[in-house]
Structure formats: structure tokens, C-alpha cells
Amino acid sequence: MSIKKVLKTAEFQHPHFPKYLGIHYTPEDFDFHSDQNTCDWKWHANQNAIAEIKAKGGQISRIDACTIQSHQTQEILNFIHTHKKNHYVIQHFSQQISGLEVIIPENTIIQKPLNLNIDVFNQLSSNYSLLLNLGTNSRITINQQVIIAGQASNASLIMIGSQNDNSQLKLTTTILNHSNLNLVLFGNLDAARDCQTVWSLTPGIHGGLLGDVAINLNGQGSFGRLNVLKTGTVSDHCGLQASVNHYAPHTKSRINMRGVLFGKSKVNFTSIGNIVKGASGSDAQQESRLMTVGETTHGTVNPVLLIDENDVNAGHAASVGQYDLDELYYLLSRGIPIMQARKILVYDFISPVMQEFDKRIQKIITAAIEMGSGESFNDNL
Amino acid sequence: MAELVIRHLSVAVQDKMILDDVNLNIHDGEIHALMGPNGTGKSTLSETIMGNPRYKITDGKILMDGRNIAKMKIDERARAGIFLAMQYPVEVAGITNADFIHSAMNARTGNQNVPVLQFLDQLHQNMEILNIDPAYTDRGLNKDFSGGEKKRNEILQLMMLKPTLAILDEIDSGLDIDALKVVAKGINSMRDRKFSCLMVTHYQRLLNYVVPDVVHIMMNGRIVKTGGPKLAMDLENTGYEKLI
Ligand SMILES: Nc1ncnc2c1ncn2[C@@H]1O[C@H](COP(=O)(O)OP(=O)(O)OP(=O)(O)O)[C@@H](O)[C@H]1O
Ligand SMILES: [Mg+2]
């Protein structure tokens, strides 16, 4: 049965707008105003990585309604089942499906980072899905960049990854858009035993963003790291939840979120470290921080630890605030102009997460900060 | 040239009056020492000259080369030639020591940047004079530097930025005798007709190595006594109370 047909069954009627602790949003903002029947998009990537993947038996293939394969349908249905009450997930897959699948076979190490670019040109609402499949003992680095270039007012992005035993994934996801947009972003990366998963996300969306991303450590000995870097400018609003679920013993996670708020932007971050009963010897640490630079910004961070096991290690650090005025004063006292001094402090603040991205993406982040630095400030110096 | 003239200066912090009618005159090329018990307002005076927004001038004037600097912003004052070596320098991990000093130099030269090789050359020379490990070039600004290393790094900045008026707030505190000699060497290398300096210190020993032209004693927010280098030696023997 096709995904669309499954979604018409009773089970998936009356979904809800998802609720997240500490995240406030207007549900209608993220509703699609029109059903989309064709998605106008294309992808490209660096040839050397594509060649290496193909030579080693891997695949990068386009998914659409005509060509969708049964294992892809199955993966998507599994994802839908875990989000079956989520209005936006149902909305996403009720559209014509479009996206990509990357498959890396077992015992395969891809040396070249895959720089995957997805350009979406839709004028109406658009959806895009990425499926990732890593075989046992495989390894790859993927730098995924989604650019929404059309005039669409809404978009929806879903990432579904699964890693077999002892595989390593380093994934960065950058999202950019040209005109104001409301975007929903969902992602689940499932890791089996002894995996390493590092996912770094920088949603540079102008407009609204609602996101919920998670790494599931399903097998013992796995390690998951989630990095988030968000710069808010003008009147951007962003609610983003990042979680790592420890479902097996001796799993380890790090969540590191940084947000820089310029202008009148609003950012709510929620980070969740979830250790279930039986996941003994696990270690979950998280750090979420927002720097409020702009004149009338609003930011909250909500660190959450859900722990149902005694023998674990868990901790969190959180902060919301301006840069340190003594540091700013020190820089100024050496003659560094105020605009530059502020930027030095912003870069200082984001540097632990910034270094997770490659040079190309760092440039994009830098551009966003340069843009934000042109807006008004609240330090009265 | 750099002449500092302070007239009837009163300063408050959080509505509490700290400096009360301070008068001070530093001529071109002079080095003055400012001494006094804890909490009398020495750092307050130093920070006020630099423009720290915590300190509010309630009365009086600060003139540098005849120009009232009270209205100038902090970075403008710095570019006009004022330098404050702080009692407690802050750490900023995200910029390297070298990039920071280079940026500060470039800010002074306007559009024309100081060429990198020339900059590094000067930097390494001065680091050698100050016995600073070359590895500190690429460390984060003051990041995890020890107290003494931070002080030497302040003097390194002084030597690189070549201000015309330097205020050194307890540059000698926490230094062992070898480090003190090194720091003194750095300060003395700046001595020039065009370099004026106010050194805040608690210890006469610094003044053995950097001999001041004038010594002031501050108590309770006022300069209560002014004299030559001998004043500091007398102080060492008698203490503040007997002196006034
Ligand atoms: N930022 C501030 N906030 C509140 N009070 C302050 C501040 N700075 C200084 N003061 C107060 O002003 C007075 C003078 O302090 P200042 O630091 O100028 O003294 P000082 O002479 O430099 O002392 P020390 O020799 O201990 O460094 C003290 O009573 C101090 O508590
Ligand atoms: Mg002091």
C-alpha cells in the first residue's frame, strides 16, 4: 500500500500539533496552505565522492512517487508510526513524496566527504525527505546543504537515518532560504551497537522554524553527538528540540546547542537526555546556551534529563545572556571598534560548535553573523 | 606628545562617591607613580581615564593634550593613544593573542593594515624581550594564562601598541623578582619624550627598576601627598598613616 493510502486509514486521522516543553509557536504558521503535487528540486554533489560511493557499491538515488521502492516505503512508514499523532509529519507524507536516499553497504569506508546540495525551487509549499542507510562497519561524512530558493512560504524537511552495528556517521545539515519561510524539521537517526553518530545542524532559516531532532542509541556502546548552531536575525523565530535517547547500556551522548540572537529574534531551545531503565553505565551531557545580542531579543533554554536508571552519569549546563561586558570593555580599551569587538565575542561564544562544521559552512555562518551585526544592540556602549 | 591634566575630578560608582576632587598633572615623557592603601580609588582613577562605563564623572575634567576626553568613547580614547594595563585582564578564548593584538594595531592605523610579516616580526621580538613562550602567539587571548603571564601579556600589548599615555594598574602584583625585572625592562624600553605613564603600585620595589619622576599618595579618594622617588622609600619605612 502506498504511503498516501496508509495515511488515509483511521489510525492517522486527527493528528495533533506537537507540543514541546518551553517551545511556543503558532501552529497555523507551519500549516501548508496548498497541497503540492510536484516538487521542483534538484540535487548535486561532488563527483569524487559520488564516484567513490558507486565504486564501492553504494547508492544515491532520487525518491519520488513513481520510483519509490518497498524498503523505502517501509522505512518511512516506521518513522510515521513513531510520529503518528504529529500533524506536521502526517502533512509531510500526505504530499507527493520527494527526496533522496543514500545507502552505504557494509564494510565500506567512504573517504571523501559527500557534499550533498539540494536546491528547492518550489513556489508553493515543499517537502523533502532524506533517507540514510549505513551498513555494518561502514563510515561516511555527509555535508548536506538544503537551499530553498523559491518563493514558497512553507516547507517541511524530514531526515531518517539508520546505522547498523559499528558504523560511523558524521552528518552536517545546513538549511538556507531566500525569502521568508516557515519550516518544520524532523529527524531521527537510529544507531545500533557500537556506532558513532555526530550530527551538526545549522538551520539558517529566515522566518520561522519548528524542529525536533533526535539520535536514538539503540545498541550498547554507541555514542551520539548533536550540535546545533542557530543565528536569529530580524524577527526570526525558532523553536528547536534536540534529544538523545539512550535505549541501551554504556551509551554516551553529548548535546551542544548555541544560539546567537540579533535584532528582534526569538529562540527557544530544548535539549533532552533520556536514559531508560536498563541503559546502565550510560553518560548523557548537554550544554545549551543563547547569546542575546540584539535590542529586543527573546530566548529560553530548557535542558531536560529524563533518567530511569541509577548507574548513570548525566549533567547539563545552560545559559541565556548577553556577552560579558568586561570582555567587551577590554577589547574596546585596545582600540578595537565596537562592531568588531562584539563580533569577536560572538565568534568566541559559538566556537565550540562552529568547529564541527567544514570551512564552506563556516563561511555561511559567518555571513549570517555579519548580517546580524548590522542590527541594533542592547549594550549602550 | 601626551600631557595629562586632571582638574577637580570627582567620580561615583553606583551613586557612591569614590574620587573626590583629584588633581594631577603628567607632563610629556614623565612617569608618575600612584600609591595608596586598598580601596582608596587608584583603580577607579585608572578606569575613569580609560572610560569604563561603570564609573561616572560627577565633576571636573580630564584633559589629554588639552582635549577633554570625557565625551570620547573607550575605543576612541585607545586610538587617541591611551592604554590601560588592567589589574585583572579578562580571557577571551575565541581570538588568538596574535590576532587580537594585530586587530588592535590595525584599528589604530585606519585603513592601512600592518603587514602580517612585519607584525609577527615585531611581536616575536617583543615576546623575546619579555620572556614569553612563542607558543603563546596562537593561544586564546589570556586563556588560562597565569597571573604573571597575563601581566606580561599586558606589557606585550603596550610595547606593540605604543600608546602615548599608559596607565599601569598594579602591573607588578603577583610577579616574582625575575618577572618584575622583565616587565620593568619592557616599560623602560618605552621611555621616551613622547611616552607618559601613570603606574599604580603597592610596592616600592617596582620603583627601583622603573624610577618615577613623581610619586603621588592617594587616600580616601584624594591625592594627599606628591613628591619625588624618595617619597616612596619613606613610605616603605613609615607606612601611610605616619606620612600625612
Ligand atoms: N565596580 C565597582 N562597583 C562597586 N564599587 C566599586 C567598584 N569599583 C570600585 N568600587 C569601590 O570603590 C572604592 C575604590 O576602589 P578601587 O578599586 O578604585 O581601589 P584601589 O585603590 O584600586 O584598591 P586596590 O589597591 O585594592 O586595588 C572601593 O571602596 C571599592 O569597593
Ligand atoms: Mg586597584
Notes on the protein architecture:
The complex is a heterodimer of chains A (381) and B (244). With 381 residues, chain A is an alpha/beta fold. Chain A has one domain (3-323). Chain A has 7 helices and 18 strands. Chain A has helices spanning 3-7, 47-55, 70-82, 87-94, 325-332, 338-354, 359-372; strands at 41-45, 59-64, 98-104, 114-120, 126-134, 139-148, 154-163, 168-177, 181-191, 196-203, 207-217, 223-232, 237-246, 252-261, 266-275, 283-292, 298-307, 313-321. In chain A, the strands form 2 sheets. Chain A has a 9-stranded mixed sheet. In chain A, strands 2-3-5-7-9-11-13-15-17 form a 9-stranded mixed sheet. Chain B contains 9 helices and 12 strands. Chain B has helices at 42-50, 74-79, 97-109, 116-129, 147-161, 177-190, 204-209, 229-238, 240-243; strands spanning 4-13, 16-26, 31-35, 55-64, 67-68, 82-85, 92-96, 140-141, 165-169, 196-200, 214-219, 222-227. Chain B has a 6-stranded mixed sheet with strand order 6-9-10-3-11-12, sandwiched between helices. The model of chain B has no long low-confidence stretch (mean pLDDT 94). The complex binds adenosine-5'-triphosphate and magnesium ion. Magnesium ion (MG) binds at residues 42-43, 87, 169 of chain B.
Estimate the global geometry of chain A from the Cα principal axes.
globular
Spans of chain B with pLDDT under 50 lasting ≥5 residues? none
Largest interface comes to: A-B, 24 and 26 residues
| CATH homologous superfamily identity of chain B | P-loop containing nucleotide triphosphate hydrolases
Cα separation of the termini of chain A? 64 Å
H and E string of chain A: HEHEHHEEEEEEEEEEEEEEEEHHH
Family (chain B): Belongs to the ABC transporter superfamily. Ycf16 family.
Keywords (chain B): ATP-binding, Nucleotide-binding
Pfam families (chain B): ABC_tran
Domain ABC transporter (chain B): 4-244
